[in-house]
Amino acid sequence: MPGAMPAASAQKSPHAPAWEVPPLPYAENALEPHLSAKTLSFHYGKHHMGYAAKLKELVQGTPFAAMSLEEIIKATADKADHKAVFNNAAQVWNHTFYWRCMRPGGGGEPDVALTQRLIKDFGSPQAFVEQFRAAAMGVFGSGWAWLVDVAGVLKIVQTSNADTPIAHGQKPLLTIDVWEHAYYLDYQNRRADYVQAFMTYCIDWSFVAKNLGVA
Fold first, then answer.
1. Calpha distance 157→72 (Å, rounded)
2. Is 4 helix (H, G, I), strand (E, B) or coil?
């Protein structure tokens, strides 16, 4: 029945509880001057943690509490009566993934194996960067731009608000958060400057390659 609560698993998932947010993979000031410690403190400490706290409240005492984050997302996608659970679970997952898409001293060029895949599906790494930047700029309002693997083909997709590729059978390889809380303290309304800084100085190409299985 559409929207029905999924049956509880017989055993608790081996994954960490959905509301447990891992630590940032670097210090809050590690991405300066491109993203400030103040931005990361608010973005991670208030927004990301806030989604996790709300998710914990929503799933407590329900079968969702025994599921992994991915299982919750897939079980609640497109279910109107579980929209709040989906939104908070997806935002927890999206943010955890986003932090790992960056590293101190990031940017530069992808390695040879990843470069070959980008050439295959986009023509060149530079063409990918331009298309990804355009996708990030083209998200209307709040949302995300993603590089995903769809049946062995690399594609760039946009999602609005909390939506996430894993709800649609796509494998995420890279994302940029273009909700205003991701950049407003540092860039105000200059989303283009934030996207440029992300692509030039912050992106962790090795993480993308690892996700693709070519690292």
1. 22
2. coil
Cα–Cα distance list, 15 to 47, 54, 143 (Å): 22, 19, 26
In the sheet that holds 143-150, the strands lie side by side as 153-160, 143-150, 171-177
How far is residue 37's CA from residue 17's CA, in Å, rounded to a whole number? 27
pLDDT of 66 over the 70 cut: yes
Structure tokens at 187: 């860039």
Per-residue pLDDT tens over the stretch 87-105: 999 999 999 999 999 999 9
pLDDT of residue 20: 80
DSSP SS3 for 177: strand
CA separation, residue 72 to residues 78, 86, 174, 191 (Å): 12, 7, 21, 31
Q: Which domains does the chain have, with CATH numbers?
A: 37-100 (1.10.287.990), 112-212 (3.55.40.20)
Alpha carbon of residue 50 to chain centroid:
16
Q: Cβ of 130: how many Cβ atoms within 10 Å?
A: 13
Question: What tokens appear for 194 in the block?
Answer: 């934030």
Contacts of 180 (CB under 8 A, 6+ apart): 142
Nearest to 209 by CA among 128, 125, 121, 117: 117
Structure tokens at 189: 């309304």
Residue 143 amino acid letter:
G
Task: Report the percentage of the chain scoring pLDDT > 70.
Answer: 91
Q: What is the pTM of this model?
A: 0.90
